[in-house]
């Protein structure tokens, strides 16, 4: 885009980066270069705090480094959201606040006012994590930074994970235990199939596996234009997920790989797959006496004993929800079950319904559904951004499906909510349209720059002007031209297609120099 177009009345003034900054970069890198990071330091601090295996107590409330950071950022991030600095308020934002408020109400109802710190910490864990992603990831640069930080965390954890996988020695916990309180493994978390279940810097091996698998599809699509690198990163994440030796993360990884394969083979045709899944779900509901949910729980496990336990947990847990449909049983309330059935509930959605009643699970499900719907319906995305969105949706789809067989808590739950919020920038047409991939100049020179800003918004096309005689393109000297009696041409107007380009009405022919455009260098 030349200077004449940038300075036209239809666009706000912006400065494009110089060409050398973009030379030799891939399309994804150029998209990320087009905008400025919102708050990179805060985002990096949040990501790097997640795998620290340390905690301490203040007033009887257990605090991790991630919780402390969320406590400090909660009010500023909430103000940022409601003042419009993170885009307009969406349905998912309202529903997440309603769900968090309902969590606090039910906890105080069951635990009493003396447990306000507990209620606050629980709200921080869910809503605070969501606000980090929702308000600090606002463009392609922020999203790319988030994924790069996650990749750095995985690479740092890799040697510790390999050591723990073969020797059952967790160096990270040993280092932190000398200064802070740290986690410990129960006998059931140690060995499986001759190898140690890796927990690394997390409280449980399941949490380590879930943290890893969330990044599989996003990292693959981040480097989709370099297939070999993308496959290597996906293989690395899959291997680290396997080290947890937990069925739920491995199921999520398998689903992510399957969906990536479907996208590659069908080139993004998702409607047939959705129809097939819907038909199978309806068929199982009508033809089987167990129903699709029980079939899912029964088959997505490593051994029959685990499947048997989870089926009966689902049966008794669902009955408990029906006995307490409004207020639930709270965070520490017990539920009716046989003596041989443990109190552990390996089903995130069921845990939410049991603790906070049907209103809680309905509000959370609606929030997540509205968020995914807004992201998938976004229209103003470049091809690279559309690829990133595919990775985001695949990751959440596989994870939400798998959460029917596992619970997620603590800092990893905060990270999951952060990742949910981090994808909402895809749904904002105003911001998404400004992270366009650069297009080459008509002269055939090297790429001259990218015009992109969160403050730029395309306007409606100006009325057509008389172009019977050649005039000068509109520049910052337009008023001087008007006084001189020279009629300027209308600016180039971008069409609804992301990469459509409209020529000037009086385009010079081949070999002819553009009049009045002798200084067309991007700034």
UniProtKB/TrEMBL annotation:
The keyword Repressor does not apply. Keywords: Membrane, Transmembrane, Transmembrane helix. The chain crosses the membrane at residues 39-58, 64-82, 94-110, 116-133, 145-166, 206-223, 230-260, 272-289, 348-372, 392-420. InterPro entries: WaaL-like. Residues 437-523 are annotated as: Disordered. PANTHER family: LIPOPOLYSACCHARIDE BIOSYNTHESIS PROTEIN PA4999-RELATED, TEICHURONIC ACID BIOSYNTHESIS PROTEIN TUAE. This is Uncharacterized protein.
């Amino acid at each position: 885009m030349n200077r004449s177009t940038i300075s036209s009345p239809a666009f706000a003034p912006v400065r494009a980066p110089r060409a050398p900054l973009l030379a030799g970069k891939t399309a994804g890198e150029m998209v990320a270069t087009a905008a400025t990071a919102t708050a990179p330091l805060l985002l990096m601090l949040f990501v790097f705090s997640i795998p620290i295996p340390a905690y301490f107590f203040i007033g009887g409330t257990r605090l991790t480094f991630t919780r402390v950071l969320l406590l400090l950022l909660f009010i500023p991030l909430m103000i940022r959201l409601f003042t419009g600095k993170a885009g307009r308020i969406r349905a998912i934002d309202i529903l997440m606040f309603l769900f968090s408020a309902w969590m606090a109400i039910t906890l105080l109802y069951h635990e009493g006012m003396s447990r306000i710190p507990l209620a606050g910490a629980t709200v921080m864990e869910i809503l605070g994590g969501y606000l980090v992603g929702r308000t600090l990831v606002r463009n392609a640069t922020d999203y790319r930074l988030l994924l790069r930080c996650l990749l750095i965390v995985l690479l740092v954890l890799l040697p510790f994970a390999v050591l723990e996988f073969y020797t059952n020695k967790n160096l990270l916990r040993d280092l932190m235990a000398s200064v802070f309180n740290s986690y410990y493994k129960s006998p059931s978390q140690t060995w499986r199939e001759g190898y140690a279940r890796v927990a690394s810097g997390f409280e449980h091996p399941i949490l380590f596996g879930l943290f890893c698998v969330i990044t599989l599809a996003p990292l693959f699509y981040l480097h989709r234009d370099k297939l070999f690198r993308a496959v290597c990163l996906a293989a690395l994440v899959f291997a680290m997920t396997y080290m947890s030796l937990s069925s739920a993360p491995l199921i999520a990884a398998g689903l992510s790989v399957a969906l990536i394969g479907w996208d590659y083979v069908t080139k993004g045709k998702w409607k047939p797959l959705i129809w097939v899944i819907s038909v199978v779900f309806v068929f199982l509901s009508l033809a089987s006496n167990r129903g699709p949910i029980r079939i899912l729980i029964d088959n997505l496990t490593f051994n029959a004993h685990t499947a048997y336990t989870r089926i009966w947990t689902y049966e008794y847990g669902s009955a408990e929800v029906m006995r307490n449909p409004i207020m639930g049983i709270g965070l520490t309330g017990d539920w009716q079950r046989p003596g041989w059935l443990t109190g552990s509930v390996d089903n995130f959605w069921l845990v939410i319904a049991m603790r906070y009643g049907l209103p809680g699970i309905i509000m959370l499900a609606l929030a997540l559904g509205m968020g995914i719907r807004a992201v998938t319906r976004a229209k103003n995305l470049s091809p690279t951004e559309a690829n990133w969105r595919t990775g985001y949706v695949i990751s959440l789809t596989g994870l939400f499906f798998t959460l029917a067989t596992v619970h997620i808590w603590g800092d990893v739950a905060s990270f999951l909510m952060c990742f949910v919020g981090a994808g909402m920038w895809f749904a904002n047409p105003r911001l998404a349209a400004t992270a366009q991939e650069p297009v080459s100049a008509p002269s055939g020179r090297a790429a001259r720059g990218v015009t992109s800003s969160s403050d730029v918004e395309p306007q409606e096309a100006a009325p057509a002007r008389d172009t019977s005689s050649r005039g000068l393109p509109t520049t910052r000297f337009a008023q001087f031209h008007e006084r001189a009696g020279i009629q300027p041409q209308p600016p180039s107007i971008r069409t609804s297609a992301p990469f459509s380009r409209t020529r000037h009405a009086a385009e010079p022919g081949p070999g002819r120099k553009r009049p009045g455009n002798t200084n067309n260098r991007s700034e």
